[in-house]
Specification:
Layout lengths: L6 E8 L3 H10 L3 H9 L1 E6 L6 H10 L3 H4 L5 E4 L4 E4 L10 H7 L4 E4 L12 E5 L12 E3 L3 H9 L15 H28 L4 E6 L1 H9 L12 H7 L2 H20 L3 E8 L1 E4 L4 H12 L5 H16 L2 H24 L3 E4 L5 E6 L14 H15 L2 E2 L7 E6 L15 E5 L7 E4 L3 E4 L8 E4 L2 E6 L6 E2 L3 E2 L3 H8 L19 H4 L2
Parallel strand pairs: 1-8, 1-9, 2-20, 2-21, 5-6, 5-8
Antiparallel strand pairs: 2-19, 3-4, 6-7, 9-19, 10-18, 11-12, 12-15, 13-16, 14-15, 16-17
Helix pairs in contact: 1-2, 5-15, 7-8, 7-9, 7-10, 8-10, 12-13
């Protein structure tokens, strides 16, 4: 008896709106995704509340929660120094599924898996930091090393050097960004088709990062209620977000054709996108007022300096000066954090992140674990839920979650303690409660769109069931891919998705 292994092409779509993708399928705008949905399986996908894309894509790759793999954001808090530091892929404490398949003898090709480092001794090929939104290692790195020259020679370098542009974009610049991203989608498609035709991989995983960039930068052009909406620019440019999605749909059609009928194709859009209505910009001030702790003068001066840079300096000078001010601000913040009971730490705008100055964990921890910690959370949650958005009259916060009730693992101590779930129906610029008074701090950054937890998948192929599959988690894709190739992931927090894995009678051939 021989064991049959499925051929799998996994296409990641980084941070596209699940609602927009599904609507495009219904309207005929995205015919290739619609074909996968109608001929195979599809479903919405749940994640972990509070965690953003920086945490969830590594969970897709490994099948474990951030409390096990260790990453929740591209920069994370160090409890020894009270400093916020970049997260490096060497800090991961989990194995991506392609390494497990490779170790079992499977041939794998991995192109720019989001936030992933470079796997060692891979039975196949891998790229990092080529056509991406977030760099992991800082530059294009490949396995084998000579693959980099081949990629650049055949398909070219990244046409989008940086998505964020200090001061925002004009209509012409939005159109240019859209065109660059559409061209980059074509590069990705051509690369994927090329390597599919070169070899029958057991697993090929490639990712379109373009929705992440266009969603951050141009979301306001499709939302007339957005404070940054510009009717004139929208009339000139149209809907860059939908244009990029349409290019990806066309690319999926090319990849599906190259993969052939004997290959199962899975498309996973992980984390979504919506108007950037969050309150992270005012969270630390809110926490100060709850604890009744004043900001030290140097830190308050830095905050004013950043606003002045944003409002007065020409675009060409902003980034340089802002980087310098951020460095000085971070140095001042270290001493400030050490004297407080809790404070905000950087996170995606979909949720605020709070760190407790915990005794036995932080170098100068002052909050005792156990009952004291529990009481602090209960009181802080109560105070936060009293806060209202003065511009809508509605609660500014829908919930406050404890991370240790969302996930457990050896890296739990690296995570924020609490997540603040913002009511994102409108901008959060002015908030009030009897405890904090009024906090008035408008946020108009470069990014008009930001992440949501909404994800969706589409799949079709010879071993894929037909119809909707419910109760799917982002944690389920790694164990499902492993099972499809006869590999177990014993530490996985997810489960094998029914309808996407070979049955026992299909394995025996």
């Amino acid at each position: 008896m021989t064991i049959r292994r499925a051929r799998t092409v996994l296409i990641g779509i980084d941070s596209a709106s699940a609602d927009l993708l599904c609507a495009g399928c219904d309207e005929g705008t995205f015919p290739n995704l619609a074909a996968l949905r109608d001929q195979g399986a599809w479903g919405t996908v749940g994640g972990l509340p509070g965690f953003g894309s920086g945490a969830l894509w590594p969970s897709v790759s490994s099948g474990v929660t951030p409390a096990k793999h260790g990453r929740y954001f591209y920069k994370q808090f160090n409890p020894a120094s009270y400093q916020v530091e970049p997260f490096h892929p060497s800090h991961y404490r989990a194995t991506p599924v392609w390494e497990a398949i490779s170790a079992a003898g499977g041939r794998v090709a991995v192109f720019d898996a989001p936030q992933a480092g470079l796997s060692q001794r891979l039975n196949g090929i891998q790229t990092t930091d080529w056509l991406v939104h977030d760099v992991a290692l800082g530059r294009l790195t490949t396995s084998p090393p000579e693959l980099a020259a081949e990629l650049l020679g055949k398909f070219g370098s990244d046409p989008v050097p940086k998505c964020d542009l200090p001061g925002g974009r004009s209509a012409a610049e939005h159109a240019q960004l859209r065109d660059q991203l559409v061209a980059r989608v074509g590069q990705r498609a051509d690369c994927t088709v090329h390597y599919l035709e070169r070899e029958p991989w057991d697993l090929l995983f490639t990712t379109f990062a373009e929705p992440h960039c266009i969603g951050h930068q141009s979301w306001h052009l499709r939302d007339p209620a957005h404070p940054m909406y510009d009717a004139g620019a929208a009339a000139r440019v149209g809907d860059p977000v939908r244009d990029v999605y349409a290019a990806i749909d066309a690319a999926i059609g090319k990849i599906a054709a190259a993969a052939g009928r004997d290959t199962d194709l899975i498309v996973l859009s992980a984390t979504g996108m919506c108007s950037n209505y969050g309150g992270n910009h005012l969270l630390d001030e809110v926490l100060r007022r709850i604890e009744n702790v004043q900001a030290p003068r140097p830190l308050a001066w830095m905050t004013r300096s950043k606003r002045a840079i944003k409002q007065q300096l020409p675009r060409r000078l902003r980034q340089r000066w802002r980087r310098m001010v951020n460095d000085v601000e971070e140095a001042a913040s270290r001493a400030d954090r050490a004297r407080r009971s809790y404070f905000a730490v950087p996170h995606n705008d979909l949720a605020g992140a709070i760190r407790v100055n915990l005794a036995g964990r932080e170098a100068r921890g002052c909050v005792e674990p156990g009952a004291t910690y529990d009481t602090l959370f209960a009181q802080l949650r109560h105070d936060l839920l009293q806060i209202r958005n003065l511009d809508t009259g509605r609660p500014a916060i829908t919930d406050v979650l404890r991370t240790d009730q969302l996930c457990q693992g050896a890296k739990l101590a690296d995570m924020p303690d609490f997540f603040v779930m913002w009511n994102r129906e409108a901008p959060i610029d002015r908030v009030f409660s009897p405890t904090i008074g009024t906090v008035d701090l408008a946020h108009r950054g470069n990014r008009s769109g930001d992440h949501t937890p909404d994800s969706v998948f589409f799949a079709a192929g010879p071993s894929v069931a037909r119809g909707r599959i419910d109760d799917v988690s982002l944690l389920d894709f790694a164990p499902t891919l492993a099972a499809r190739h006869g590999v177990a992931l014993p530490d996985a927090d997810g489960r094998v998705i029914p309808g996407l894995a070979l049955r026992d009678d299909e394995r025996a051939a």
